[in-house]
Amino acid sequence: MRGISGKRVVITGAAGGIGRATAKRFLDEGARLLLCDVRPLPDTGLDRELHAESGAGARVRYLQADIATQAGVDALAAAMDEGVDVLINNAGITRDASFGKLSDEQWDQVVAVNLTAVFRLSQAAGLRMKANKRGVILNAASVVAHNGNFGQSNYVATKAGVIGLTKTLARELGRSGVRVNAVAPGFIETPMTAAVPATVLAGMAEKAPLARLGKPEEIAAAYCFLASDDASFITGAVLNVDGGLVV
Predict the structure, then answer these.
(1) What three-state secondary structure class fits 149?
(2) Whole-prediction pTM
(3) Domain 8-241 belongs to what architecture?
(4) Helix, strand, coil percent content, the chain, rounded in steps of 5
(5) Average per-residue pLDDT for the chain
(6) How far apart are CA 181 and CA 226, in angstroms?
(7) What integer pLDDT is reported at residue 47 of this predicted model?
């Protein structure tokens, strides 16, 4: 896509699922990557290209850090000093329980990763982008932010918060040439859903007009479009990539 090659792209939650697919898509488009995850980068077939590109002077750098902590945020922010054109706040976790059984720890863990880290990293990247008069911030929302979801009051609250944060940052940073958008995935085939029984997955798929689960590469394509020059007049938007689940 136009305007991706050579861009310095930071992606959180990059060790698996949507984050890994997004890293590979941007690498294929010619971007330079700073990848971050609390886990080490897996040494599997899908990641050999990322491993081959990593190292001194290469197009891929990998930082293992916990962005739920201030130390992890600070480490990633320091790595941005070498430059950041696109920040993709992709990292997210779930700690599901019904409202009456949800513990303070489950609430705090999800808020720390899914919302607080998004704010802190957007602030770090946004100030650098503002000084350069250009940049793109992309945040991971979710379709459940629109309608809620049983047993996910913590997760839904963070994703609704991400949407509000996205729209506010778009207003605050727009005059500085920085665009801020969110992608709201529906039900996607990831390691997280691999543990779900087949009958449950079939029911999830049937809820969408396209009657299937999405693929991580389809979310990666949405991120890539919004980061590209083809989306140069789009900011403050929430792009649902959900097979029509929310219409």
Answers:
(1) coil
(2) 0.94
(3) 3-Layer(aba) Sandwich (3.40)
(4) 50, 15, 35
(5) 93
(6) 7
(7) 60
